[in-house]
């Protein structure tokens, strides 16, 4: 992996599949059970590591079902009886508006207060009382005067829910500790052990709503730019801190709103790339490798995203001309991805072998390439995965 990142040829092309729900589904473990207690999917993780010996590891991106449901989160649906999703269905993230277009200034001027009293109570119905708190006035009489709110019956119920959610989060965090320990035991570095969105996506995914944000580019561009600047500082602080606290060397960054269909190259340069670039450089300065997943179509972005510190970054792609990617981004960053996940799930073994060979012919020469699938692996035929790994090992030797 170190050779590939440094744009050098190692002994072979790293096999680094982006694995999601397959760690449960592929080993007959329900996603419902895994999200109730992460330790339930440990046999699947252990089995995948032993069966396929990846050179860079992924963990499932699950949320703690109990905490999500206790706090009545409106944007996350977990599999199970309370959501209408089957026990083996993927969880769902809905696009929601937690900030109106009139509230940009509130976010920009005081983000901490805005998240506490506006975004959180709107996102978690059980915590709606937070919208009534006044936290920006340090006056003692103001503080003591509003304490009465905590004696209301509905707030007492909410505080009990918070305590129960805290217990669920503790179990969830213990599960992460055991999962990280399993990767250490197997000697596999974690590429997607800790993740964080880029600044534009943090605004779009968690606050304003993705569809709203890409339209705000036209209706209030200056407000969007100012809000992205705020989010950039938050992203850098949290991304660096979380990765170091976890003792990891990689930070996974999924890119959502930056796809070709959502904004022009000019808008990408102006609204999306500056914050992402600052985040990338801050990670590199802290000896952390940015592991960036370019979701969707990225045909029009390759020259833009090539402006990064050479030999320090990983880009993987869902939909791109890999030959062009090799000729542009591949000169400064390790690249990968693009093998159709649909082929692994529904194709024939012979098709997987041929597709793998074609990718290796394009990406492997000169180093700086890793083998990955196009989107996160939730379903796959076992024989196709085996053929994929075997072909990579055999034809990916230098």
Structure characterization notes:
With 398 residues, the protein is of the alpha/beta class. The protein is built from 17 helices and nine strands. The protein has helices spanning 2-5, 22-25, 31-36, 42-52, 65-70, 104-109, 111-123, 140-145, 153-186, 199-208, 210-219, 221-245, 265-285, 322-327, 341-346, 349-363, 382-395; strands at residues 57-58, 76-77, 92-93, 190-192, 250-255, 289-297, 314-319, 334-337, 369-370. The strands form three sheets. Strands 5-6-7-8-9 form a five-stranded parallel beta sheet. A two-stranded parallel sheet has the order 1-4. Helix 14 (322-327) links the parallel strand 7 and strand 8 (334-337). The longest helix has 34 residues, at 153-186. The model has no long low-confidence stretch (mean pLDDT 96).
Indicate the mean pLDDT: 96
The profile of the biggest β sheet is: 5 strands, parallel
Strand content: 5-15%
In helices, the fraction of residues equals 40-55%
Low-confidence stretches: none
Q: Radius of gyration, Cα only, in angstroms?
A: 22 Å
User: Based on DSSP secondary structure assignment, what is the total number of beta strands?
Assistant: 9
Tally of helical segments: 17
Strand order of the largest sheet: 5-6-7-8-9
The sequence of SSEs as H and E is HHHHEHEEHHHHEHHHEHEEHEHHEH
Distance between the termini: 14 Å
The structure class reads: alpha/beta
Shape: globular
